[in-house]
């Protein structure tokens, strides 16, 4: 079934699988603001409130029979799955949304792995995932693309890079460390891998969701895969400099070999292991050709403070003794760097 034309007088009946995560929550808000009739399917355990008028369908997608039966009974015009992680999830989606007009799979640039086979990478770049997460996403994407080739399943695949925004911690080069901005604010030294000049692509979540909405209903997007990021990129020194400037503090970086950091600080360096020790920059000209209005504008300098304030609030709400011990000074000493 091809997607019906967008009609501002007749909203789409849209389902978002997930709906309370970082990208999916912003997507639900954007769809509702655009006047669509929005439902979300999840377990109903998250604290993020749904916008007025958005309907919750409570359930667990791992109960595949119940999930698929509910989706077929609802007969949505379009569906967005933000939590399809492997081939079994994808096959379940095919059964659940057999009659849908347009289906969006959210994949990841982790499918391209690192180091990237070419720079900047595009949709034709060889897939060389390093992690099980990346490999499982490749398998899920393949299920959808095969279904499109063989049966015309109306799928569009988006592969986000680092999508950031208020409601989640700002990453650092090493990884997902919720306390690193506290060190930055105190002007204590921060470790960085190699020379810190590895390039990194990112996109604010409010810019990212414009791609989902803009592609909705586009016939040309069916069976296509699009990288989703800003066309611009920063190296990691520039990235940390911009956040320091937002806070009005001096930046003190200490360089160390990536291999040493992976060995000495494994609980923080998962991102470094898979992506951020390599150049990660992407050519999004295919997305911009399909959607000329896609022009990411929200920068770290403009919006990073929202993330930092959210991180501060989470730290204030954490139970006493709940924070991770600050190990960075210890790692610096062990590496003989200070």
Question: How does this structure look, described?
Answer:
This protein is an alpha/beta fold. Strands 3-2-1-4-5-6-11 form a seven-stranded parallel β-sheet, with helices on both faces. Strands 7-10 form a two-stranded parallel sheet. The N and C termini lie far apart (63 Å). It has helices at 22-33, 64-74, 87-96, 132-151, 180-185, 205-215, 236-247, 258-264, 270-276, 285-290, 300-317, 328-334, and strands at residues 13-17, 37-42, 55-58, 78-81, 102-106, 155-160, 162-164, 190-193, 199-200, 202-204, 224-228, 234-235, 253-256. It is built from twelve helices and 13 strands. The protein has two domains: 13-164 and 201-228, NAD(P)-binding Rossmann-like Domain (Rossmann fold), CATH 3.40.50; 180-200 and 234-279 and 299-333. The longest helix has 20 residues, at 132-151. Helix content is 38%, strand content 16%. The protein is globular, with a radius of gyration of 21 Å.
């Amino acid at each position: 079934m091809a997607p019906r034309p967008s009609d501002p007088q007749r909203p789409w009946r849209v389902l978002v699988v997930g709906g309370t995560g970082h990208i999916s929550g912003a997507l639900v808000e954007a769809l509702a603001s655009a006047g669509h009739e929005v439902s979300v399917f999840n377990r109903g355990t998250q604290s993020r409130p749904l916008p007025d008028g958005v309907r919750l369908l409570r359930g667990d997608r791992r109960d595949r029979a119940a999930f698929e039966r509910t989706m077929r009974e609802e007969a949505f015009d379009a569906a967005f799955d933000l939590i399809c992680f492997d081939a079994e999830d994808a096959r379940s989606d095919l059964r659940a949304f057999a009659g849908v007009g347009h289906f969006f799979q959210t994949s990841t640039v982790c499918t391209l792995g690192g180091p990237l086979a070419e720079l900047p990478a595009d949709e034709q770049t060889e897939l060389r995932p390093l992690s099980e997460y990346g490999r499982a996403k490749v398998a899920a994407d393949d299920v959808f693309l095969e279904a499109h080739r063989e049966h015309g399943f109306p799928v569009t695949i988006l592969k986000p890079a680092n999508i950031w925004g208020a409601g989640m911690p700002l990453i650092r080069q090493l990884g997902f460390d919720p306390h690193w901005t506290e060190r930055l604010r105190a002007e204590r030294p921060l470790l960085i891998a190699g020379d810190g000049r590895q390039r990194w692509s990112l996109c604010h979540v409010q810019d990212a969701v414009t791609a989902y909405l803009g592609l909705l209903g586009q016939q040309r997007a069916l069976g296509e895969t699009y990288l989703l990021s800003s066309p611009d990129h920063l190296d990691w020194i520039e990235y940390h400099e911009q956040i320091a400037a937002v806070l009005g503090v001096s930046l003190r970086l200490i360089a160390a070999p990536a291999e040493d950091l992976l060995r000495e600080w494994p609980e923080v360096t998962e991102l470094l292991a898979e992506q951020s020790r390599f150049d990660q920059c992407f050519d999004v000209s295919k997305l911009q050709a399909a959607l000329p209005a896609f022009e990411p504008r929200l920068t770290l300098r403009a919006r990073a403070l929202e993330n930092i304030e959210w991180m501060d609030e989470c730290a204030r709400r954490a139970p006493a003794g709940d924070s991770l011990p600050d190990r960075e000074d210890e790692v610096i000493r062990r590496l003989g760097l200070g």
